Amino acid sequence: MCCNILPRVSCLLLWISFAAGDVGYFWHVTDLHYDHTYWTSRLSCLEPVPKPGKYGDYWCDSPWALVQDSIASMANITADVDFILWTGDSVAHIADANLTLNLNLEIVANITETLNTSFPQVPVYASLGNHDFYPSNQADYNQSEIYDQVSEMWENWISNQTQVEQFRQGGYYVARIAPKLRLLALNTNLYYTNNKLTANVSDPAGQMAWLDDQLKDARSKGDKVIVTGHIPPSVLTPGLADWFYPKHKTQFVDILLQNSDVIVASLFGHDHSDGFKIIQDETGSRAVTQFTAPSVTPWTFRTASKTADPHNPGIRLVTYDRNTGLHLGYEQYYINLTDSNRNGRTAWTRLYSFTEAYNVSDMSVASLRKIFSLMASDKGTVYSNKYCTYSVVSNYPINCTEAARADIYCGGLHYDLQEAQDCKHKYLASLNGASGLSLNVFVVTGVILVKISAFILQ
């Protein structure tokens, strides 16, 4: 157990949880984005960096020192975990002209070896990210060289030969992590709007049908399921960007919601930021939680019209009930990149505990509904500001803008981009008193019934 490194209050809560069930731990690490040119041409950097730091720069992807240090630090904090969840994007944000398939595979292999070295007895349940493919983003929906070679790298982790063959067909598989708990590692890059190969394919690689079959089979056998992958199906918050092709999103989310009773959580990467959402139907009767872990890379996203806030590297330790699959909480760790470079060494520190920071008992749908309900109340700035602060993996308090508050609330409750945007318009109008609605009443538009809100806030 990791009580030697966790605060006493957290340890006490975990001991209490032990009394109620069989508690386990796993690491979630994502978006390492190793830049093999960091010490030469720095091809991932969006601005000139004349004096690159040992552990990276906010304009650049990760040097190897950061990749190694983050994985080694996971083992130093606690190596006694049931498994590691690695949700993709090992390759840097570098143009295809400066990459090759063999180079991408070499990077994935090096990180695979590093994880094996630091955690020799721990299975890793890994997914490919959109940048791991060559050309970038182009996840094939047929058997391909990347699926063949990566399946050999991860064969011992996947362990089941049938699932190794499944991975070769489309980059996805199922793993049993406890007697009544299975994990579905998906290839959601098949639905990415930058993937030209799958734009007109209704069910790329047959993953939708397979997902539905797995969830129905889990129900029939009394199993629970953790769903994982690289690209999340909901919208980015703050920002309200959409990653899935609309037809794929509709089909994918429908499958999740039809089987929401067996899904205990969905965990993704890609966004580079810390975040959580509820994927739910119009009535709120079917719902699934979605958590995105922050990236290891400090690379700052920028477009022609917008530059994101700089963010620090992060790694996440999740606590769960092995019997029910319920996610009980997580400890988010991080380094201050500026301090690490100045000191010439890292000091991975606990940034926050999810349950303590948001005053909830676990990571369930009910807990997230409580948080979003509070965000829509007069106390909303407290919880929204925490979200804004943690989204960039920082301990320096950030005050959300009204637009960011609206994004967090509406994107947190509406997976459809247009619905989230409509909600945002009403939310901002309510903040400014233009709609005549109070924020407490506005909760109803987020599919949280007033009676339910009142009950969970007791």
Automatic annotation (TrEMBL):
Residues 1-21 form the signal peptide. Its cofactor is Zn(2+). GO terms for molecular function: metal ion binding; phosphoric diester hydrolase activity. InterPro entries: ASM_C, ASMase/PPN1_MPP, Calcineurin-like_PHP, Metallo-depent_PP-like. It holds the Pfam family Metallophos. Its main location: secreted. It is found in: Secreted. The chain crosses the membrane at residues 437-457. The keyword Cell division does not apply. Residues 289-427 form the Sphingomyelin phosphodiesterase C-terminal domain. GO terms for cellular component: extracellular space. Belongs to the acid sphingomyelinase family. This is Acid sphingomyelinase-like phosphodiesterase. The lineage of its organism: Eukaryota, Metazoa, Spiralia, Lophotrochozoa, Mollusca.
